[in-house]
Amino acid sequence: MDRRLVLVSLTAAVAAPVFAQQSNQSTGTPPNTTARSGLLGPDEMQHIQQTLQLGIVALETSRIALQKARNDNLKQFAQFETDEQTTLAQVLHTMMDPTAPAATGATAQRQPAQTGSSASSTPTTAASSAARAPDSVLDTKGREMIQKLQQASEAEFDKIYLSGQIEGHRDLLQVQEQYLSSNPQNINHVNVVKLARGQIKEHIALLTNIQNVVR
Q1: Which of 20, 201, 212, 158 shows the shortest CA–CA distance to 99?
Q2: Least confident of 4-8, 61-65, 193-197, 202-206
Q3: Nearest of 160, 184, 164 to residue 172 by alpha carbon
Q4: Is the dihedral of CA 131, 134, 138, 143 positive or negative?
Q5: Distance from C-alpha of 2 to C-alpha of 80, rounded to nearest angstrom
Q6: How confident is the model over 151-160, as pLDDT tens digits?
Q7: Please, is 190 exposed, middle or buried when counting C-beta atoms within 10 Å of its C-beta (0-12, 13-18, 19+)?
Q8: 30: region left, alpha or beta (phi > 0 left; psi from -120 to 50 alpha)
Q9: Fewer CB under 10 Å: which end of the chain, C or N?
Q10: Is 41 left (phi over 0), alpha (psi -120 to 50) or beta?
Q11: pLDDT tens digits, residue range 124-145?
């Protein structure tokens, strides 16, 4: 599947319910509390938090790979992963804060990262800032992986990055499957999760093919 289409589909899936909820708020219309309301329940919030946690690891390690990877296909994958994880993080942050502007793929590529007191509270900058502040948002496993890649020699880097990405994507896939198997009622969120799940599966297949070459 064309990755640009996936990014557009993800942003479109979240934009419609966000704009609808903003319209309801501006007109004083009570929000619909049915499955199509777009409101997030505990299951949705847990899914978002778990996906962001794992996604930041994938993003940070891929940024390192852009500088250190030797295999051309692996470096290309790292660029894809950086772009897609940035957009997915923006989409998920927008879903958590419907009053903020919906994220777009174009914004994902142009938005500069900010940290510290100058960081904006918008989903776009929040996602970027969080991704560039791993010590404050990563768990121990994520920090250890980043440190391992930073210290890895050129000869061993590709194998370590590949192994970490495959494991991380399998964990990400498990998070999506767990949410979808929980009988979710939020149709908008389900659609985003299904798109993400398909892309994660594609990435696992691509990484496996690259792993067969990188020995």
Answers
A1: 20
A2: 4-8
A3: 164
A4: positive
A5: 11
A6: 999 999 999 9
A7: middle
A8: beta
A9: C
A10: beta
A11: 444 444 445 445 578 899 999 9
* Non-local CB neighbours of 41 within 8 Å, separated by 6+ positions: 185, 186
Q: How far are the Cα atoms of 64, 85, 114, 128, 150 from residue 119, in angstroms, in the given order?
A: 23, 19, 5, 9, 26
Measuring CA to CA, which residue among 46, 8, 10 is closest to residue 193?
Answer: 10
At 168, list the tokens: 């991380």
- Residue bearing tokens 């989409």: 91
Pick the CATH number of 3-23+36-103+122-213 from 3.20.20.190, 1.10.10.10, 3.40.50.1100, 1.20.1260.10: 1.20.1260.10
Report the C-alpha gap between 3 and 176 in whole angstroms. Answer: 19
d(C-alpha 98, C-alpha 18), whole Å = 5
The pTM for the full model equals 0.72
Residue 28 CB-density burial (10 A; 0-12 exposed, 13-18 middle, 19+ buried):
exposed
The full set of domain ranges for the chain reads 3-23+36-103+122-213
